[in-house]
UniProtKB/TrEMBL annotation, chain A:
This is ABC transporter permease. Residues 67-88 are annotated as: Disordered. It comes from the Bacteria. InterPro entries: ABC3_permease_C, MacB_PCD, Macrolide_Exporter_MacB.
Automatic annotation (TrEMBL), chain B:
It comes from the Bacteria. This is ABC transporter ATP-binding protein. Gene3D superfamilies: P-loop containing nucleotide triphosphate hydrolases. SUPFAM superfamilies: P-loop containing nucleoside triphosphate hydrolases. It comes from Nonomuraea montanisoli. The keyword Nucleotide-binding applies. Residues 6-242 form the ABC transporter domain. InterPro entries: AAA+_ATPase, ABC_transporter-like_ATP-bd, ABC_transporter-like_CS, ABC_transpr_LolD-like, MacB-like_ATP-bd, P-loop_NTPase. GO terms for molecular function: ATP binding; ATP hydrolysis activity; transmembrane transporter activity. Keywords: ATP-binding, Nucleotide-binding, Transport. PROSITE patterns: ABC_TRANSPORTER_1 (PS00211), ABC_TRANSPORTER_2 (PS50893). One of its GO terms (cellular component) is plasma membrane.
């Protein structure tokens, strides 16, 4: 009794009940395909979110003013809260002097560059007849380009000279450039922003939507130029700090905190009047969230795989029960226990293997399509796991009833009706 | 004188527990010699089927010893028992017990397959066994395409194909009409002439008349052991026909 003959017996057994075998296979197919596909969708969405965050620039800290807990809001009913946080002076805005202090190498050695930022809201740019409300008009220093990972596709950046001279030059995002100039090359042309003329020196590379807002609907100009013409020389909107490396962001954050606490007179338990957004922390948080999401999807899929496995168990139980008499006959003419066990195990394995492999094929085909706006990314370990589990289930749950039947005395099996 | 093919000593078989205990066999002693043709008779419930199942190694006795060809069955493990059923014993059932959806040829080849015989030899031996029972023209029919008599002849071929030391038949003609019964009994007679050891169970005197020796069981014990023809001669019916 060699393996080929056992395989032939198993095939004959399965083909005797084509419909039943097909349905069982289908159950496993769906389970395996669901595991692989859903894990791929989860992985795809997590990767696309990560990419979007990375596009905003890694290693950067964004410092923005915070008024929660500031002096103005503390006078309300429940004055006890104010006492808890100790005496507070008026919350201070971020200033250019703050930015200059952060750029001090001695106080903050982990800081590579500091870019003060002012943002003019609702600035309308016009060029000849075309006009466009710029989503974000940013006045800053040239270091901002590197910190935020923005590159110029055409033309040039603006430089420190332009900042010092407060030249009215501008780098446009692709959305703004298209709205105002269409197919024309905007470099060297003049746009007027709220009546003030700016010369376009460059156009940014397209960076794509970050999901919440259009990252290309921006215009960048030297800080003093924007302050002069649009926002006035008041406080800063934010300060973007780039750390010297990805591993230095935490140190940089500590240094920035120390410098700002000192400058703003924040000591002990007092709440800070600024907020630091760490891209690395954000990335970690988001990848944790998407990881949970992937696990959730995988759990749902695993349940369907389990149901498929129970299907195999059920079919093997039925098959063995209704063929107990046949097992008795085979034993009576001298079939060794191994041959009987082998036949039924082979049947169960064939069912789960055929179902599992076609499930993998379906999943491979499925991941070629975009599902709900997400490009699925195949995770090889999920393929191995789903296939392994399906075959394992087949062997284990198929083996149990087969073993029970193979152990019967021939006369018990023969008398079974 | 060689050792008997079958040697049974003080065989007891009980079913059930406590009050519900039934003693199907109460100490049976039996020797069957090489070439003998034994009919075991008895009313229903006399324990003859129980005896047969134990002789065929399908069931185990509660106590007592049993040797086939000198091998003590009680001492064999599961694997050796399977080998014994495969090589030394051929069993013919009352209800044929062919495997459905397998051709006559495949059914006859099955014991050889489990015995590890190569494909070419398997095929030729199965063909020879089917020719012996006169079914060369029904090789590829499945059991449900065969008549009862034909099915039983396939079953006899299956029992014979491994050339066993002992052919056991449990009421082989119980489910057959007269002409099929005659076919099967003719085959058994011919096998006996060729020296095969046969033990069959029946409750019909006509069938028992074919045997060289008739044993009668009542309530699990042997009450009569009558010889109708010598062990090394032809079975009585064939002797009459010749004489």
């Amino acid at each position: 009794m060699n393996r080929l003959e056992i395989l032939r017996f198993a095939l004959r057994g399965l083909l005797a009940n084509k419909m039943r075998s097909a349905l069982t296979t289908l159950g496993i197919l769906i389970g395996v395909a669901a595991v692989i596909l859903l894990v791929a969708v989860g992985e795809g969405s997590s990767q696309s979110i990560q990419k979007n965050i990375q596009r905003l620039g890694a290693n950067t800290l964004t410092i923005s003013p915070s008024f929660t807990g500031g002096g103005g809001g503390r006078g309300g009913p429940g004055g006890g809260g104010g006492q808890n946080t100790g005496p507070r002076t008026q919350a201070r805005q971020l200033t250019l002097a703050d930015a200059e202090a952060l750029a001090d190498r001695a106080a903050a050695p982990s800081v590579a560059s500091v870019s003060p930022v002012v943002t003019a809201g609702s600035a309308t740019a016009t060029y000849e007849a075309a006009s466009h409300g710029i989503g974000q008009l940013v006045g800053t220093y040239p270091s901002y380009f590197e910190a935020m990972n923005r590159q110029v596709a055409r033309g040039t950046y603006f430089f420190n000279d332009d900042v010092l001279a407060a030249r009215k030059v501008m780098v446009l995002g692709t959305t703004v450039a298209e709205e105002l100039f269409g197919d024309l090359d905007p470099v060297g042309r003049q746009v007027s922003v709220s009546g003030v003329p700016f010369t376009v020196v460059g156009v940014l590379k397209e960076s794509g939507s970050t999901g919440m807002q259009d990252a290309d609907d921006v215009a960048l100009a030297p800080l003093p130029a924007v302050q002069q013409s649009l926002t006035g020389f008041g406080s800063l909107g934010s300060i973007v700090v780039r750390a010297t490396g990805a591993s230095a962001t935490a140190t940089a954050q500590a240094e920035v905190t120390a410098v700002l606490n000192q400058r703003h007179g924040i000591t002990g338990t007092a709440a800070a009047d600024y907020r630091i957004l760490n891209q690395a922390t954000l990335q970690e948080t988001v990848s944790e969230a998407t990881g949970t999401f992937t696990v959730l999807l995988a759990a749902v899929a695993a349940i369907s795989l389990l149901v498929g496995g129970i299907g195999i168990t059920n079919i093997m139980l039925v098959t063995v029960t209704e063929r107990t008499r046949e097992i008795g006959i085979r034993k009576a003419i001298g079939a060794p226990r191994g041959a009987i066990l082998g036949q039924f195990l082979m049947e169960a394995t064939l069912l789960s293997l055929v179902g599992g492999l076609s499930g993998v094929l379906v999943a491979f085909a499925g991941t070629r399509f975009t599902i709900a706006g997400i490009e699925p990314v195949l995770v090889p370990s999920s393929v191995a796991l789903a296939l392994g589990v399906s075959v394992g289930i087949g062997l284990f749950f198929g083996g149990y009833p087969a073993n029970r039947a193979a152990k019967l005395r021939p006369i018990q099996a023969l008398r079974h009706e | 004188m060689t050792a008997p093919v079958l040697r049974v000593r003080d065989l007891v078989k009980e079913y059930g527990e406590g009050d519900a205990r039934v003693r199907a066999l109460r100490g049976v002693d039996l020797d069957v010699d090489q070439g003998d043709y034994v009919a075991i008779m008895g009313a229903s419930g006399s324990g003859k089927s129980t005896l047969m199942n134990i002789l065929g190694c399908l069931d185990v006795p509660t106590s007592g010893s049993y040797r086939i060809d000198g091998a003590d069955v009680g001492l064999l493990d599961e694997h050796q028992l399977a080998l014994l059923r495969n090589r030394r014993v051929g069993f013919v059932f009352q209800s044929f017990n062919l495997i459905p959806r397998m051709s006559a040829l495949a059914n006859v080849e099955l014991p050889l397959m489990y015995g590890g015989v190569g494909q070419a030899e398997r095929r030729s031996r199965a063909l020879a066994a089917l020719e012996q029972v006169g079914l060369s023209d029904r090789l590829h029919h499945e059991p449900n395409q065969l008549s009862g008599g034909q099915q039983q002849r396939v079953a006899v071929a299956r029992a014979l194909v491994t050339a066993p030391a002992l052919l056991l038949a449990d009421e082989p003609t119980g489910n057959l009409d007269t002409s099929s019964t005659r076919d099967v009994l003719d085959i058994l007679d011919r096998l006996s002439v060729s020296g095969r050891t046969i033990v069959l169970i029946t409750h019909e005197d006509d069938v028992a008349a074919h045997a060289k020796r008739v044993i009668r069981l009542v309530d699990g014990a042997i009450v009569e052991d009558r010889r109708q023809a010598p062990v090394d001669g032809p079975p009585p019916r064939l002797a009459e026909a010749v004489g």
